[in-house]
Write a sequence for this structure.
């Protein structure tokens, strides 16, 4: 029979380590998503304001995020900052910074879009009722944008989780690095381990991301 | 609509401007550092970029960079524990320093970077001593001998690098001495480069290259452990040594390691290390050629 | 930053850029083809094939490109399927991109009012003719902004090619850092070259979007 090299996963704590590696990815994504959502709301509101300097600054920020690969940002933050500023960031901290930098821009744009989609009349009516700017945003605008944002931010989680596969490149031992280690340690006994292990990693990612993106789709259809 | 485009173009111009400013900024930092004056230098010297022996002891942990996918020198076993020839030494250093060890998994190409940015205190990742590297980091006394070697499949053994055809690719690992050597001395050979040992070996097994050039210790081990491969070129280039490395200027740590290596030499520590970690792979034949003990 | 170093590295980065573009556009072309076929299949609700397309979309949208590449490049040869690194890059990018392109084309198709299909039928056009001459041209032009966003996304994703030994921009930077430790110069050039590659696409995207909005102004 064809040896698919799946048996190596049942040796020692191999499979458990793979799951722990996956958890590292998920953890980094979750932390980054929470921070991104909070910062993204602020950035999104700032984007709707008519301050020209702010406007240009945010445009530049969004454009950088749009065209720089996350991997490049990871390298710049992890290796570059230490070189230029003498800051010593751990790999995990660098990853979270980069993912927040990216996620905040994405969330900001989404928040801006959903605020813009609310008709001007609502702002005007709120002001006419004597509400100030903060009150208007808090009581009138945010409840309406909230429903629209939930599915989109859930969608952002899956994209973050997928992108965390890159953190292997800056030395974080996550699921892909663990799989390399397992393949390497068992090369002699199980030469086909690469097939079994990578297939399982592929499925693991799918099993994590698929339900989340389904949920996001479902909410989008129901709420928006 | 037109405003949108103008905004976009302003934005893009600004990015470029920022990049240029960044460039200028970096340039001036370097210059300041060279002249030994200016703000940048004082900021740098206060943070130093490394931890002294005392600082490491005080913190209670030492960060050691090792390979996690280079069996039998540095790898992770099936229980998730780091193991191998390099790790055996790391364990002893940690014990004698009286601190916990935090292993940092490195790739070949990251080793200098990790030291220079102070992300690890010591690199014990099969780091070959070369002149170029010695300008970037400080090497301690050596603990192993090494040269380059080339392994290839048995049915088409590469005996000389001149035999390699125009379209054939030789697998190397990015940031290794094999890469530098081949780039310098055989610029016509096409190299297929990988970051990690695990990837390079899988690719070699899958037949993506006609040969794999690396430290001879590593290719010999590969030919012994995997059927159907032969080391056609067992020794290439200079005879080199492998040594622990620390951040440039970290004298307290460097001196301590050197003293420690001398003490370890007296008890024939590396022979014990070999027997514990490498004997299974190499047999007893290579013990005297590989191991270096400091007297 | 050292000017000489910068200048001496530029040819290496230029080669890397060319390789990235070569694999990038082949992969993107491939993803276009998958996108069109897949969207047509879902549009016509072809039995069985429709389910397969659905599974394909879910599988490739919910896994990272890096894992897909590892699977294609390192795992498949173990069961006898062997391809070169370049082919793997094109295939991986095409398969990933295809899953996104299908969705983009599909939403373009859905936005064409049903009355156009009905009118075409009543003029005696066949199903295929209607799709090819009436629906598709409109759907594609409506999808352009989405497609360009996908193109930028896919060109960015090429940065993971370095893991399968393709000498792209990312790899060149990593490799040079590993050999000569000139980190700042290498990272600087990396950013500059990504800007060179992606800024024009981004600007063209903005211009096209503007034209399309004008085109749609009459509605």
């Amino acid at each position: 029979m064809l040896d698919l090299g799946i048996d190596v996963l049942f040796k020692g704590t191999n499979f458990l380590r793979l799951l722990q590696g996956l958890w590292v990815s998920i953890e980094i994504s979750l932390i980054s998503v929470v921070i991104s959502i909070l910062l993204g709301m602020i950035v999104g509101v700032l984007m709707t304001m008519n301050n020209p300097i702010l406007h240009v600054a945010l445009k530049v920020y969004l454009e950088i995020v749009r065209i720089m690969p996350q991997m490049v940002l990871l390298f710049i933050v992890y290796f570059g900052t230490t070189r230029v500023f003498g800051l010593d960031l751990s790999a995990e901290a660098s990853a979270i910074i980069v993912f927040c930098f990216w996620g905040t821009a994405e969330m900001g744009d989404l928040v801006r879009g959903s605020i813009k989609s609310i008709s001007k009349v609502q702002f005007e009516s709120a002001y006419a009722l004597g509400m100030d700017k903060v009150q208007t945003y808090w009581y009138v605008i945010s409840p309406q944008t909230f429903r629209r944002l939930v599915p989109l931010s859930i969608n952002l989680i899956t994209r973050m989780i997928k992108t965390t596969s890159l953190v292997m490149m800056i030395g974080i031992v996550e699921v892909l690095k663990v799989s390399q280690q397992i393949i390497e340690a068992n090369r002699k006994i199980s030469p086909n381990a690469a097939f079994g292990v990578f297939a399982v990693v592929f499925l693991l990612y799918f099993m994590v991301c698929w339900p989340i993106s389904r949920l996001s789709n479902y909410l989008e259809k129901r709420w928006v | 609509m037109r405003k949108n485009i103008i905004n976009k173009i302003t934005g893009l111009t600004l990015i470029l401007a920022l990049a240029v400013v960044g460039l200028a900024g970096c340039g001036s930092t370097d210059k300041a550092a060279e002249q030994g004056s200016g703000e940048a230098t004082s900021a740098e010297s206060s943070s130093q970029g490394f931890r002294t022996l005392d600082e490491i002891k005080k913190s209670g942990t030492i960060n050691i960079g090792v390979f996690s996918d280079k069996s039998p020198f540095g790898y992770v076993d099936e229980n998730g524990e780091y193991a191998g020839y390099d790790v055996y030494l790391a364990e002893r250093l940690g014990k004698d320093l009286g601190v916990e060890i935090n292993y940092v998994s490195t790739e070949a190409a990251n080793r200098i970077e990790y030291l220079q940015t102070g992300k690890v205190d010591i690199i014990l990742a099969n780091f070959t001593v070369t002149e170029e590297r010695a300008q970037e980091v400080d090497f301690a006394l050596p603990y192993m001998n090494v040269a380059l070697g080339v392994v290839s499949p048995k049915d088409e053994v590469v005996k000389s690098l001149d035999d390699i055809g125009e379209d054939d690719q030789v697998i190397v690992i990015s940031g290794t001495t094999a890469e530098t050597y081949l780039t310098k001395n055989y610029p016509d050979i096409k190299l297929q480069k990988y970051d990690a040992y695990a990837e390079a070996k899988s690719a070699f097994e899958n037949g993506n290259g006609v040969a794999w050039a690396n430290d001879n210790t590593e290719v010999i081990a590969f030919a012994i452990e995997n059927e159907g491969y032969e080391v056609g070129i067992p020794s290439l280039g200079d005879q080199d040594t492998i040594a622990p490395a620390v951040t440039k200027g970290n004298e307290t740590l460097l001196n301590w390691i050197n003293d420690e290596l001398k003490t370890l030499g007296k008890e024939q520590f590396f022979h014990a290390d070999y027997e514990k970690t490498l004997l299974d792979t190499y047999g007893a034949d290579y013990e005297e050629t590989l191991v270096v003990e400091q007297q | 930053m050292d000017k000489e170093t910068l200048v001496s590295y530029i040819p290496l980065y230029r080669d890397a850029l060319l390789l990235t573009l070569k694999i990038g556009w082949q992969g993107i072309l491939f993803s276009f083809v998958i996108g069109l076929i897949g969207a047509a299949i879902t549009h016509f609700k072809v039995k069985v094939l429709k389910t397969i397309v659905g599974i394909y979309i879910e599988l490739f949208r919910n896994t990272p490109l890096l894992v897909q590449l590892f699977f294609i490049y390192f795992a498949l040869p173990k069961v006898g399927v062997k391809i070169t690194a370049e082919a793997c890059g094109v295939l991986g990018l095409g398969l990933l991109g295809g899953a996104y392109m299908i969705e983009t084309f599909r939403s373009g198709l859905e936005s064409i009012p049903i009355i156009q299909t009905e009118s075409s039928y009543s003029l005696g056009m066949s199903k295929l003719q209607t799709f090819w001459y009436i629906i598709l041209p409109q759907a594609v032009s409506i999808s352009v902004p989405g497609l360009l966003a996908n193109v930028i996304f896919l060109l960015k994703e090429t940065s993971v090619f370095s893991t399968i030994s393709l000498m792209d921009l990312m790899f060149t930077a990593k490799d040079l850092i590993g050999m000569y430790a000139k980190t700042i110069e290498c990272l600087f050039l990396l950013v500059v070259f990504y800007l060179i590659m992606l800024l024009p696409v981004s600007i063209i995207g903005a211009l096209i979007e503007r034209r399309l909005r004008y085109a749609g102004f009459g509605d």
Observations:
- The mean pLDDT of chain A is 88.
- The radius of gyration of chain A is 22 Å.
- Chain A touches chain B at residues 11-14, 17, 55-56, 59-60, 62-64, 79, 82-84, 86, 88, 90-91, 169, 171, 173, 177-178, 180-188, 191, 194 (CB under 8 Å).
